[in-house]
From TrEMBL:
Species this chain originates from: Nakaseomyces delphensis
Ranges annotated as spanning the membrane: 65-84
Domain of life: Eukaryota
InterPro entries referenced in this protein's UniProt entry, alphabetically: PA_dom_sf, PA_domain, Peptidase_M28B
Record SUPFAM superfamilies: PA domain (SSF52025)
Protein name as it appears in the record: Vacuolar protein sorting 70
Length: 319
């Protein structure tokens, strides 16, 4: 068996056109579909980028190439500054240019400060001792370096005229509570702002906190609550939300009252005396509040979505 030996001169590179030979007269046949040719793919990213840059350089001069790079970087940084999260690069850029904080940033800094130094209990004690809480808050803001601005608003509120509550057994009155505590400096009867005017006489039913869970439990136990006055204890829900739930479940009226369980540790069972001799709640205490649907409308319900900042502003009907 004979063996053919090839020299280096006999090895020819693969031509650009497989049908045409080189200058030496060599002829190459074309690659048929039946032949299996495997080529190594390019896997180096930097080589690809370098090749791309070479192509760009070959088609434009150096000055245009530099302008293109600078324009691309400018577009990139402008995009990042505009759409980056407020707590990252955009915030740092605003600080660099001495720009003001956005409201969300001020709110975040305020909450972070409360985690470190919370003086809420001190403020509550000071507010309880001062006669004008507005002036106290205003002076404290000035100490912090703020410049408080005073503005007048004219919200619509209803005022109490006469209140009465009686519990009947048939036609006989068996209970009629006081409408004002027997305490000094109490000048107004018990009243809930934005409560509806009118008279009501109906049977009543105890509904705990008047929460959705309470009503679902009563319906499950087949307790008749339709068309009755619902007795709701304070706590867990805002008074307006209690009334909203009661209206949804068919009440004719709502009576809110304080329960000893909501007084925390300052109760007579824990050895505390009742006010004014101690911190415990008086027996005839009446809580004043608002029954506005705060979860639906913020502020003045007669001007939803805008402020009542002058007397003759257009209002919606209170009812």
């Amino acid at each position: 068996m004979s063996e053919t030996v090839y020299s280096a001169d006999d090895i020819q590179p693969f031509p650009e056109d497989s049908l045409i030979g080189d200058a030496r007269g060599h002829t190459y046949s074309s690659i048929s579909d039946s032949e299996n040719i495997s080529r190594r793919p390019r896997s180096y990213t930097m080589s690809s980028i370098r090749s791309g840059l070479e192509i760009v350089r070959n088609h434009m001069d150096r000055k245009k190439f530099v302008y293109l790079i600078l324009a691309s970087l400018s577009i990139y940084f402008a995009f990042v500054a505009a759409f980056a999260p407020r707590t990252s690069l955009s915030r740092d850029l605003r600080r660099f240019h001495s720009a003001r904080f956005s409201p969300s940033e001020v709110y975040r800094i305020y909450l972070d400060t409360l985690l470190v130094d919370n003086k809420a209990s001190d403020h509550l004690d000071n507010l309880a001792r001062t006669e004008n809480s507005f002036l106290y808050i205003k002076d404290y803001l000035r100490k912090l370096g703020f410049t408080p601005k005073e503005e007048d608003f004219y919200p619509w509120t209803n005022e109490p005229v006469r209140q009465a509550l009686r519990v009947f057994n048939e036609s006989r009155t068996i209970y009629e509570p006081r409408q004002r505590e027997a305490l000094p400096n109490v000048s107004q009867d018990g009243f809930h702002s934005y409560s509806k005017n009118g008279k009501l006489k109906s049977r009543f039913v105890y509904c705990n906190y008047c929460s959705r869970e309470d009503y679902e439990l009563m319906l499950k136990k087949q307790i008749d609550i339709e068309g009755k006055i619902h007795l709701c204890r304070y706590g867990r829900l805002a008074p307006g939300n209690k009334l909203k739930n009661a209206e949804l479940y068919g009440s004719s009226g709502v009576l809110l009252f304080n329960h000893d369980d909501e007084d925390g540790t300052f109760t007579t069972l824990n050895g505390y005396k009742r006010y004014p001799d101690g911190p415990a709640r008086p027996m005839d205490a009446i809580q004043r509040d608002t029954v506005r649907y705060g979860s639906d409308i913020f502020g003045d319900p007669t001007t939803p979505g805008y402020a009542s900042n002058y007397p003759g502003i257009e209002r919606e009907a209170p009812d």
